[in-house]
Design a protein that fits this description.
- A two-stranded antiparallel ribbon has the order 1-2.
- It contains 2 helices and 2 strands.
- The protein is of the alpha+beta class and 98 residues long.
- This is Cell division protein ZapA.
- Keywords: Cell cycle, Cell division.
């Protein structure tokens, strides 16, 4: 079993103590940096009065990216299935002729 680490992650000027697996530390730190960068971008580009509004927009942005990747993968997956079916049909036809 991996050792647990106690780390502190800062998001929107608040510190969150977490206990995580060592393998998760780098990803969590990277994610918190991306969130803070996105917060800064929203604050610079939009008239935002409340951190909660900015955090909600960040959550929406990240969630939409995840959803879009799932949609893209589903589309790519169906194309891959069609291609594999075509290859399978060609192989089947070839083997039948022998």
């Amino acid at each position: 079993m991996e050792d647990k680490l106690k780390i502190k992650i800062s998001i929107a000027d608040r510190v969150y103590p977490l206990t995580v697996d060592m393998s998760q530390e780098e990803g969590l730190r990277s994610a918190s940096k991306k969130i803070d960068a996105m917060i800064k971008q929203f604050e610079e580009n939009y008239a935002v009065r409340d951190k909660q509004d900015v955090l909600a927009m960040c959550a929406l942005q990240f969630a939409s990216q995840v959803e879009q990747k799932q949609v893209d993968n589903a589309i790519d997956g169906s194309e891959a299935i069609k291609r594999l079916q075509k290859i399978n049909d060609l192989l089947f036809d070839y083997l039948e002729k022998k």
